[in-house]
Every structure is written in structure tokens, then in C-alpha cells.
Design brief:
Keywords: Carotenoid biosynthesis, Transferase. This protein has 14 helices and no strands. The chain is mainly alpha-helical.
């Protein structure tokens, strides 16, 4: 493959992440170009899988699309991939990094779980689901952002993905319920905080709802903190962009809080201005770390 074709394939993937996830694009576009391209290709695969399961198709069509994507992944795994931008870009990623195909299959399993959706009853069930649709993404990215992965780092990036998925769930409670007829809030927690499906249907935001929401948010924030405390395990050139992505995504939780927990009828997001503020704060943190390191060396 010539250089021009290779770049065109990565450009195709970049347009997908730029269109569908401004927060991820904002953070990961700060990686060195080769690593950024790898992230774009991985994101494009995950977005393709997500659209198979959540696109505006009939259930039967969604099943067909997911099966077709799995067949294409099988071909890719056999080094007989289709001649398409996504697969050509992913082949370049697999040729460059020590990639593992397993989390790509896990991602498809996660999307299949959405098709045959069963509301989680416990936090453990929610986190298991979150691994398949988001923790798996952390494992896909791991060889790109950490050239010396360890067992500890393996679990840490999975937990980051789970934190981000819980954040998604807390952001999209109303959308998931009204548009997809799904409730991702665990049944045990709904019962414990005495918040019913009828309350959700009516769009009630009361102390019970806020307490329930904050319990899940606390779990996500604990996982974010665990990841951020271990940021030094990543490659030096990947630390700031990944640290930034975690902080920007975590910022969605504060956006919901600042809007009075209105996530039943309103879509909450981190504004461009807020992303710029977070970016500046993250870079100050790393500047201070570098200064401290220099002082120690002296």
C-alpha cells in the first residue's frame, strides 16, 4: 500500500471520530500522528459496531449487520480482510503494534448484548456489560499507548473504559429510556433508592434520583481516580492526551450536576470552552511534574 492510500484510509477514520466524538477527538488528536491514526482506526471500528446495534434499522437488520461485521472481522483475523478503508487502516495498526484481536470480538459481543437487552440487576452486571462495550476499547488501545503493558495496566485501562461507560449511562438516562426502551440503572439500586420506572417515565428528578445518580457517579469517579494515579505506566508521549481524555469525559458528570441533574430530557456535554480549560489545567499538572522531576535529578 502506498503512503497516499494509507493516509487516505486514516483520514477516513479520522472523519468518523471527529464527527461522532468531539471529546475523544479533542484529546487523542494531541497524540503523535502515528498513534493518533491508530486510535482513529480503532474508534472507527467501534463506531461501526455501535451503529450496527443502535442504528435506525429493524431488529432483524441489526442482527444481520452485526453478523456481517463479525464475518469481516473473521476475514481480517485470517489476513484476508476486505479492501475497505477501515480494514486497510486496521491492518496498518496491527502491523505496527502488538495488537490482540480478542477485545475486538468482545466489542461485538457487547453490541449483541444491547440487541438482546436485559436490564442489569446489580452493579456487577452493569460493570460486566460495560467491560464488553467500553472496557474492551481500553484493551484495544493499550498496545498503542503503552509499549510495555503489564497485568496492572491491563485492569487499569479496562476500568477507565468502564468509568466512561457508566458516565455515558448517567448522561443518557432519558435518551436510553425514551428512544431505546432501555434502563441501564441496576434494579437493586433503583429499589434501594426507591426510584421507580414510573418516576423515570414521568421525568421526575428528586432526592431519590439524585442519590441514585450520585452513587453510580461515585463509582465512575473512583475508577477514573485509579486510572489517573497510574498514568505514569503509559508511554511518555501518550500520558497527556489520555489523561486529558479521562478528565474531559469525567467532565460530563459535572455538566449533568451543573444542569440540576437534568439528564432525562436534556443532552449534557462538555463545552469547547470547558475542554480548553481542562486542557490548560492538565498541561499545568504535567509541567509541575516535570519540574519536580528535574529538581529531584539535580
Amino acid at each position: 500500500m502506498d503512503t497516499e492510500q494509507r493516509q487516505a484510509d486514516f483520514d477516513y477514520c479520522e472523519r468518523i471520530i471527529k464527527k461522532h466524538s468531539k471529546s475523544f477527538y479533542y484529546a487523542f488528536s494531541q497524540l503523535p500522528r502515528e498513534k493518533a491514526n491508530a486510535v482513529y482506526a480503532i474508534y472507527a471500528f467501534c463506531r461501526t459496531a455501535d451503529e450496527c446495534a443502535d442504528g435506525k434499522h429493524s431488529f432483524k437488520k441489526k442482527v444481520q449487520l452485526l453478523r456481517q461485521l463479525k464475518k469481516e472481522l473473521d476475514l481480517f483475523n485470517d489476513h484476508a480482510e476486505l479492501d475497505k478503508p477501515l480494514w486497510r487502516a486496521l491492518r496498518q495498526v496491527f502491523n505496527t503494534y502488538e495488537m490482540d484481536i480478542s477485545p475486538f470480538y468482545d466489542q461485538l459481543d457487547g453490541q449483541s448484548m444491547d440487541l438482546s437487552f436485559t436490564a442489569p440487576n446489580t452493579m456487577n452486571e452493569l460493570e460486566k456489560y460495560s467491560y464488553y462495550v467500553a472496557g474492551s476499547v481500553g484493551l484495544m488501545l493499550l498496545p498503542v499507548i503503552a509499549s510495555k503493558p503489564s497485568a496492572d495496566l491491563h485492569s487499569i485501562v479496562v476500568n477507565l473504559g468502564v468509568a466512561m461507560q457508566i458516565t455515558n449511562i448517567l448522561r443518557d438516562i432519558g435518551e436510553d429510556y425514551h428512544e431505546k426502551n432501555r434502563i441501564y440503572l441496576p434494579g437493586e439500586e433503583l429499589s434501594h433508592f426507591q426510584y421507580s420506572q414510573e418516576d423515570l417515565h414521568k421525568g421526575i428528578i428528586n432526592e431519590n434520583f439524585i442519590s441514585l445518580w450520585e452513587k453510580l457517579a461515585a463509582r465512575a469517579e473512583s475508577l477514573y481516580n485509579n486510572f489517573l494515579l497510574n498514568i505514569e505506566l503509559l508511554d511518555e508521549d501518550s500520558r497527556i492526551p489520555v489523561y486529558l481524555s479521562a478528565h474531559v469525559y469525567r467532565g460530563i458528570l459535572d455538566a449533568v450536576r451543573n444542569n440540576g441533574y437534568q439528564c432525562l430530557t436534556k443532552r449534557n456535554y462538555v463545552t469547547k470552552e470547558k475542554m480548553a480549560q481542562i486542557n490548560a489545567a492538565v498541561k499545568r499538572v504535567f509541567d509541575l511534574r516535570e519540574g519536580d522531576a528535574l529538581t529531584v535529578e539535580k
